[in-house]
Amino acid sequence: MATNRATKSGFAAEAQRKVNAKYSEELAHESLEWIMNITGDNINTAGDMDNFYEVLKDGQLLCKLVNCIKPSIVKKVNNSQMAFKCMENINAFLEAAKELGVPAQETFQTVDLWERQNLNSVVICLQSLGRKAGNYGKPSIGPKEAEKNERIFSEEKLKAGQTIIGLQMGSNKGANQSGINFGNTRHM
C-alpha cells in the first residue's frame, strides 16, 4: 500500500508533484457522484485526493460499478483487504473497462490506484467509462461521444479531387534557377 513506500525526494518528488498537479477535484467529485448514482451505494463524494483514494483503493466499488453497467462482467469480487486480493479487484475492473469499450490509453495501471501513484489517470479512466455507460442504457458523464459520420464519394468526385494541388504542397510561382552555381567555383 502507499504507506509502505519511502517518501520520494529529488527528481522523483518533483515528478510526483507534476503528476499530482494534473489531478482535478471537480472531475473526481463528478466521477464519485456518478458511481454513487449507478451503484446506489452511499459513499463520500468529496473530490479531494485522500477521499478519492480511500473510497476506491480496494477495488470492490469499481467491480460493483462495472457489474451494474453490464451484469456479471466481473465474475468474482474479493472482499478481503489483503493487498493481492485488492489488486486483483482493480485488475478485474480494468479488464472489464476495456471490454466495455474504454480505450487502452485511457486506462490506468493497478499501482496507479493501489499505491496512489497517479490518481489523475484513475479519474480519466472513470470519465471514459462514464461516456461508454450510455451505450448500455446507464446514465453517462462527461462530453457526449461523437457519432460515426461516414461519407461516400462517387468515382467522379474522387477523380476530380486528384487534379487539385493542395496548399500544403507549396508554390513555385516565379521560381527560376538564376544565381545558382552549384559546383562551379569562382574563377580568378
TrEMBL record:
It comes from Tribolium castaneum (Red flour beetle). This is Transgelin. GO terms for cellular component: actin cytoskeleton. One of its GO terms (molecular function) is actin filament binding. Residues 25-134 form the Calponin-homology (CH) domain. InterPro entries: Calponin-like (IPR050606), Calponin_repeat (IPR000557), CH_dom (IPR001715), CH_dom_sf (IPR036872), SM22_calponin (IPR003096). It comes from the Eukaryota. GO terms for biological process: actin filament organization. Belongs to the calponin family. PANTHER family: CALPONIN (PTHR47385), TRANSGELIN (PTHR47385:SF14).
